[in-house]
Design goal:
mainly beta; about 15% helix; 5-stranded mixed beta sheet
C-alpha cells in the first residue's frame, strides 16, 4: 500500500478540505458539481507559510484570494 500524506485542497468542490493523498500522486481529478460532464484537475504545489513548505493541491486557476482564505482557515495547521 502506498504511503499517504494529508494535503489541503484549494478551489473547486474540495476547497479548504484536508484529504489523505498517496505521496506519489501529483494530480488528483474531481468531478465538477455544477457540470457533471466536466472533470477538474488539482495539481500538487508547494505553499510557503511562515518560512515552512506545505504540500497542497490547487486548481490551475486558483487566485491569491482563495489561497489567503485557506491560509487563514488553516492557520493553526501552518504554525
Amino acid at each position: 500500500m502506498a504511503s499517504r500524506q494529508i494535503c489541503i485542497f484549494i478551489g473547486g468542490p474540495f476547497d479548504g478540505e484536508a484529504i489523505a493523498v498517496p505521496t506519489d500522486h501529483n494530480v488528483v481529478e474531481a468531478q465538477d458539481q455544477k457540470r457533471p460532464e466536466k472533470r477538474l484537475q488539482y495539481q500538487r504545489r508547494t505553499l510557503i507559510v511562515n518560512e515552512k513548505q506545505f504540500s497542497v493541491f490547487a486548481l490551475h486557476d486558483t487566485t491569491e484570494q482563495q489561497i489567503e482564505k485557506v491560509k487563514q482557515r488553516w492557520s493553526a495547521y501552518f504554525q
